[in-house]
Amino acid sequence: STDTVVASATIASAIAPPAHRFFALDPREFNEAVADWKWPHFRCDQVRQWVYQKAVGDPQQMTNLSKLDRERLAQRVAFARSSIVQHQVSEDGTQKFLFEWNDDGKSANAETVMIPDNNRRTACVSSQVGCPVGCKFCASGVNGVKGNLTADQIVEQVFRLNEALRSEESRVTNIVFMGMGEPMANYANVMKAVRILHDPTCFNIGARKITISTVGVPTKIRELAEEELPLNLALSLHAPNEELRRELIPWAEHFALEDILDACRYYFDQTGREITLEYILLAGVNDQPEHARELSLLCKTLRANVNLIRYNEVEPLPFKRPVAQDVLTFQGVLRANGINAHVRKSRGRDIDAACGQLRRKQEGAIDG
Ligand code: SF4
Hints:
Blueprint: H1 2-15, E1 20-21, H2 27-36, H3 42-53, H4 67-76, E2 77-78, E3 83-89, E4 95-103, E5 106-117, E6 120-124, E7 128-130, E8 145-148, H5 151-165, E9 174-177, H6 187-198, E10 210-214, H7 218-225, E11 232-236, H8 242-248, H9 257-271, E12 275-281, H10 289-299, E13 304-310, H11 324-336, E14 341-343, H12 357-367
Parallel strand pairs: 1-2, 6-9, 9-10, 10-11, 11-12, 12-13, 13-14
Antiparallel strand pairs: 3-4, 4-5, 5-6, 7-8
Helix pairs in contact: 5-6, 7-9, 10-11
The structure holds iron/sulfur cluster.
Iron/sulfur cluster binds at residues 131, 133-135, 138, 140-141, 180, 182, 215, 236, 355-356.
């Protein structure tokens, strides 16, 4: 009978963790789980409202559920499961978190940054533990990739930020996959997370407000083009030609730049979304007017705009932050060629919000 099922489930839950991870379930899967418990459908909406709209992940606080249902929910579903290892708040309001999960003795961590800008609250999320790409100018690349984050670990990063934003009554409005990891190397988990973040009954974040940033995996860019979601695609270019690019981004040798650009053209044709080219300016390396002229020629072969990022120095890496005048000159050359080029504001510099730096410091502290 149902009673014995419930009773044995209760006993099992005393020793076993909850059967479901909430953030791994899309709305259909959650509905199915709840239907199995013979709950009325509106319970699903109630729980979703608490989690997604009010950023409440503790069943005990879901006060429009009966006490018994709250207990059952807590036994059956795990909500936010990470511990917050570090939380820093910058003078400019940027917040940086380091989350950690321990699943079946396997630990994973992610760094996540919340960047406020007027009414916008952008979540910069991680997709992998570490990063396989190993850009020469980046701290994350030093230790390589340790594993993929699961879809629920990706989604939970956004939930945790919403929790932190509860006190100011705001929520994450935009998402960029620009934390640690190469999203295209963890495609299935990233796409599952994107669908949950985008779903109107979940986080309800518009596809145009979600950016996937990649070093460029042509087959995956084409696959993304066919998802029927007009997501923003950002290509980490960082050099105007193949030779310099391969020096700066060792992983780039796997794919010809021309194939990547072809895939970007296909992405534009399918989605109508202009590609954003990310370009980190490194003093004396890729920030000279001749580089800007070469980049202009490349831009003219596809529908793209350019985001210029002034490098933040990372000890002990040898790269230098370019002087402000070189940044302006670089941008000026692009604009004179009709290219839409912005210089991205540097945020959270006082808390090391450049990618990979926080986690590396933490590991350094653990290693002694
Ligand atoms: Fe990976 Fe991005 Fe760092 Fe390159 S810059 S190593 S892609 S995290």
